[in-house]
């Protein structure tokens, strides 16, 4: 098997050391033309500084103005009768949370005008222009961890075929970088890989499996860069559920060639293949509102953009020189390897002088969404831990202030959940205080008239409506933008259908939001007490969640709903009605979860929550789905698979690296137990039955032990 071993690296990519990058990393080591291009691009970046600075002033000043206005109105609501300690806490939390909403609103408002006025992309990427020719070498990297091998190989083949149709596939190579620990999936990956090589050509596709998945995905990419990156100018990172069109890939490579000072270009992945109600909500919202959000942040981020971990192109030289990740001090969950590595890698490359850009209007970039809220929350738990680890990265020296803002935004995305929960609890306590604490009609000091401790319900309603306006207006702006584009509007099913979808999506998202608040608050609490998220496999199929699991997992949000309802009603009926949107979402958590996790046929003709990709799937998406259904097989016992397929067995044995020198006293316990079981077994089938998954994994990593096992005779009939 032509897997990427050290020997293959010598022949295919040159010397097998990361240090090979070092002499060529400084501009002095570049060619004269490359240096001239780099310097010219640097001057262009400097000219762009003034407008980008003004854009950031607009965002920050607008956020500050909205926050001050909201704070003033909230103060008017609370100041009647004087500000108590509880009311001061409520006001402080309101300012923080309102500023968070205002910041997002200002960015989305900017995105609306960018798309409405069709402001030119600074990278010069025009999806409608003739396809350019590319000269540089690019590696397509697909890191995988215990994923369905037939699905990922089908997607990879679909993307490869799309690139082939551009006529420029010769400049790209394909790498499957496996960190899989499940022995059955590992051997199935190798089986799929061999078939993929036969289909695409032996010299274009490579597979590498790591026995020890140090640092998880970031370590997987780093290992590739150290061993094989010297042979490539760029790398495009894919996720297990990623798809990209060949047209978009070629345009990304061309943009990197034309902008030598750019280290990374992030695309906007569009959610596809949604079948459950929850996934379709995410798909519809992301497709309709996502372009505004992406255009807005690209507009004011400028060359200090961010990286989302996949569907992005990276300059290998920049990554190798500047994106080395630290191992954080202390114990997990705050210490150890950084889980959310993408934000940090972007910040480090920007610190090294490289530009980080986004291409929000490129298109041709797709991903999938977790099928249920439980799956979404499970992924969110890992992201939460990774983002909170960024607290240790914030003090790093020489980071750009916008990069620090990205890190703070990621942290705030999860800390706002417990802050909202505390805000609601303090609101109940404040109302309770007003009910049971005797008011002072004549406070200290001379006064001819009493001070009536009555809060103005009309003013409070205006504050509420203002807050809701900042959340809802961006959705209406997306709808207005849609109305200006007739063809685009038809792809969504028509203006009326889209408006109905926005209304229903807003209501359902409003009911789901309190549940996510509880889940995220629980995640933050778990991390603060030291619980590590681990590395769980993300569920990507559309199998329905068992009702027992739904009841068990949603018991906590339901309990909070009952508790809030009882507390609010004990204070007053108006307070219960005021908090009804939050309480209703928590009380209905279980039935909403059951309904939203039911999968529908992909051929369903419902126009509600329609998206252009659902109405008319692009060729790469249609081809990937066809291959998934055609190629999918059940995963078999790995040892039986090797024994029945001599070619697969030979390929697997050839891919195993030579055994390392063993340190005295250091023995793999699983391999030792497996050796004993194999020696005691009378036949091959008996040995296979005795081996546990971890012991099987150890055997598959040992050439000598695997050969000994395969020599055993089969069980007699």
Label this structure with key terms.
10 strands, alpha/beta, 717 residues, disordered N terminus
Specify the helix fraction band.
Answer: 55-70%
Shape: globular
Radius of gyration: 28 Å
Mean pLDDT level: 87
Distance between the termini: 34 Å
Question: What ranges have pLDDT less than 50 throughout 5 or more consecutive residues?
Answer: 1-40
Question: How are the strands ordered across the major sheet?
Answer: 3-2-1-4-8-6-9
How does the major sheet shape up?
A: 7 strands, mixed
Our estimate of the beta-strand percent is 5-15%
Oligomeric state of this protein: single chain
Secondary structure category: alpha/beta
By DSSP (H or I, 4+ residues per run), the number of helices equals 29
**Number of distinct beta strands:** 10
Spell out the blueprint of helices and strands:
Elements: H1 6-12, H2 32-47, H3 49-78, H4 85-116, E1 138-144, H5 149-164, E2 172-178, H6 183-200, E3 205-209, H7 216-228, E4 234-237, E5 243-244, H8 246-258, E6 262-267, E7 270-271, H9 277-301, E8 312-315, H10 316-322, H11 341-351, E9 355-359, E10 365-367, H12 373-389, H13 401-436, H14 457-483, H15 486-491, H16 495-528, H17 547-553, H18 555-571, H19 573-578, H20 580-587, H21 589-596, H22 612-615, H23 619-631, H24 638-644, H25 646-655, H26 669-680, H27 684-690, H28 693-700, H29 703-710
Parallel strand pairs: 1-2, 1-4, 2-3, 6-9, 7-10
Antiparallel strand pairs: 4-8, 5-10, 6-8
Helix pairs in contact: 3-4, 3-14, 4-9, 4-13, 4-14, 5-6, 5-8, 5-23, 6-24, 10-11, 11-13, 12-16, 13-16, 13-18, 14-16, 16-20, 18-20, 24-25, 26-27, 26-28
């Amino acid at each position: 098997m032509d897997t990427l071993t050290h020997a293959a690296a010598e022949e295919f990519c040159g010397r097998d050391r990361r240090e090979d990058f070092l002499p060529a990393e400084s501009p002095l080591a570049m060619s004269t033309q490359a240096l001239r291009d780099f310097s010219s691009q640097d001057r262009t970046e400097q000219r762009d500084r003034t407008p980008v600075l003004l854009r950031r002033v607009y965002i920050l000043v607008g956020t500050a103005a909205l926050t001050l206005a909201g704070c003033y109105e909230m103060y008017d609501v609370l100041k009647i009768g004087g500000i108590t300690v509880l009311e001061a806490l409520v006001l402080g939390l309101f300012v923080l949370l309102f500023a968070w909403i205002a910041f997002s609103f200002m960015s989305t408002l900017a995105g609306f005008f960018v798309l409405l006025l069709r402001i030119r992309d600074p990278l010069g990427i025009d999806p409608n222009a003739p396809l350019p020719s590319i000269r540089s070498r690019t590696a397509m990297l697909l890191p995988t961890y215990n994923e369905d091998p037939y699905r990922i190989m089908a997607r990879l083949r679909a993307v490869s075929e799309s690139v082939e149709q551009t006529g420029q596939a010769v400049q790209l190579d394909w790498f499957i970088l496996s960190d899989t620990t499940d022995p059955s999936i590992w051997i199935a990956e190798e089986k799929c890989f061999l078939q993929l090589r036969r289909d695409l050509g032996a010299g274009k596709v490579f597979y590498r499996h790591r026995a020890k998945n140090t640092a998880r995905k970031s370590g997987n990419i780093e290992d590739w860069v150290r061993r094989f990156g010297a042979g490539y100018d760029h790398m495009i990172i894919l996720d297990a559920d990623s798809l990209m069109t060949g047209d978009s890939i070629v345009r990304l490579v061309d943009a990197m060639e034309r902008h030598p000072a750019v280290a990374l270009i992030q695309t906007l992945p569009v959610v596809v293949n949604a079948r459950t109600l929850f996934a379709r909500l995410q798909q519809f919202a992301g497709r309709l509102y996502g372009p505004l959000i992406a255009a807005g942040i690209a507009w004011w981020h400028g060359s200090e953009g961010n990286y989302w971990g996949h569907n992005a192109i990276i300059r290998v030289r920049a990554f190798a020189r500047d994106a080395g990740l630290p191992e954080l001090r202390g114990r997990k969950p705050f210490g150890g390897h950084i889980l959310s590595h993408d934000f940090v890698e972007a910040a480090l490359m920007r610190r090294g002088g490289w530009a980080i850009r986004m291409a929000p209007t490129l298109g041709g970039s797709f991903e999938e969404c977790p099928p249920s809220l439980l799956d979404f929350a499970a992924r969110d738990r890992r992201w939460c831990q990774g983002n909170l680890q960024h607290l240790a990265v914030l003090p790093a020296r020489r980071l750009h202030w916008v990069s620090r803002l990205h890190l703070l935004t990621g942290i705030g995305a999860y800390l706002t959940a417990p802050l909202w929960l505390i805000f609601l609890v303090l609101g109940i306590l404040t109302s309770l205080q007003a009910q049971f604490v005797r008011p002072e009609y004549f406070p200290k000091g001379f006064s001819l008239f009493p001070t009536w401790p009555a809060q103005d319900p009309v003013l409070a309603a205006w504050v509420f409506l203002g807050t809701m306006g900042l959340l809802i207006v961006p959705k209406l702006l997306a709808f207005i933008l849609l109305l200006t584009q007739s063809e685009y509007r038809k792809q969504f099913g028509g203006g009326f259908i889209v408006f109905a979808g926005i209304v229903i999506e807003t209501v359902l998202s409003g009911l789901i939001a309190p549940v996510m608040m509880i889940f995220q608050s629980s995640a933050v609490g778990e991390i603060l007490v030291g619980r590590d998220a681990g590395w769980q496999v993300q569920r990507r199929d559309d199998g329905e969640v068992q009702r027992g699991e739904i009841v068990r997992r949603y018991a906590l949000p339901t309990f909070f709903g009952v508790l809030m309802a009882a507390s609010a009603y004990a204070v007053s009926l108006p307070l219960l009605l005021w908090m009804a949107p939050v309480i209703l979402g928590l009380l209905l958590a279980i039935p909403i979860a059951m309904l939203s996790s039911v999968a529908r046929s992909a051929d369903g003709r419902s126009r509600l929550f329609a998206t252009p990709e659902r109405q008319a799937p692009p060729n790469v998406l249609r081809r990937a789905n066809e291959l998934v259904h055609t190629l999918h097989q059940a995963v078999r016992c790995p040892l039986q698979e090797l024994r029945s397929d001599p070619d697969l067995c030979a390929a697997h044995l050839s891919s195993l690296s030579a055994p390392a020198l063993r340190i005295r006293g250091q023995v793999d316990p699983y391999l030792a137990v497996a050796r004993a079981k194999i020696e005691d077994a009378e036949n091959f089938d008996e040995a296979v039955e005795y081996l546990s998954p971890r012991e099987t994994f150890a055997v598959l990593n040992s050439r000598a032990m695997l050969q000994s096992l395969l020599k055993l005779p089969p069980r007699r009939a």
